[in-house]
Each structure stands twice: as structure tokens, then as C-alpha cells.
Amino acid sequence: MPLAKEKNGSASISKVTVKEREDEREEEEEEEAITVKSLRDGRWGLYIEGQSTMFGTAMNYVTLRLLGKEAEEEPVERGREWILCHGTATAISSWGKM
Questions:
Q1: Which letter does DSSP use for residue 95 in this model?
Q2: Distances from the Cα of 11 to the Cαs of 20, 38, 41, 50, in angstroms?
Q3: pTM > 0.70: yes or no
Q4: How many CA atoms are closer than 13 Å to the CA of 26, on its beta-carbon side?
Q5: What are phi and psi of 43, to 5 degrees?
Q6: Which spans does this entry mark as compositional bias, Acidic residues (predicted)?
Q7: Which of 5, 35, 44, 98 is most buried per CB count within 10 Å?
Q8: Mind giving me the DSSP string for 72-93?
Q9: pLDDT in tens, 52-65
């Protein structure tokens, strides 16, 4: 999903509910697990010790948005900025676009 700049330099992704959850704590734990693995400049790798990649960063960015994080929240904002500064999600290798 490519990110398009809109007015104010922000990107827009619609909020989608993947499934209803009975336990908000589970969702918070998932968000925490993703956010603690983000590097200071907003990148993520495919796994904890792995090098940061556009694929890993884009997937974690989208996951956080699907979990309900707002675009202005950290580390979502840093991830988006890193994605936009490094060629957008279209820079993902071909196998990552399937």
C-alpha cells in the first residue's frame, strides 16, 4: 500500500477493525511488542536482530495503524517519515508486494 502525501504533508490510511477483541490488554501488548523494536529513526527489521528493511518498516507501520494507532503517535509518525524519505513502500522488493 503506497503512502500518498496529502494536505499538511500527512498520509491517510483508513482505520480498519480486523476483529473485535474482548481483551484490550492483548491489543496493548501487541502494540508494545512492535513499538519497542522500532529504532530511533522509525525503522524496523524483519526480526529483532535483523537489519532494518523497507518491507519490515512498512509491515509494522501498517500493523500499528490497523491496531488503532493514530498517524501522529510515536513511533508511527517516525516510521511514516522514514518510509517517505526512503522511496515509499514501492521500494519494497518484488516478493514483498504479493
A1: G
A2: 25, 20, 18, 27
A3: no
A4: 5
A5: -90, 160
A6: 23-33
A7: 44
A8: TSTTHHHHHHHHHHTT-GGGS-
A9: 888 988 988 998 89
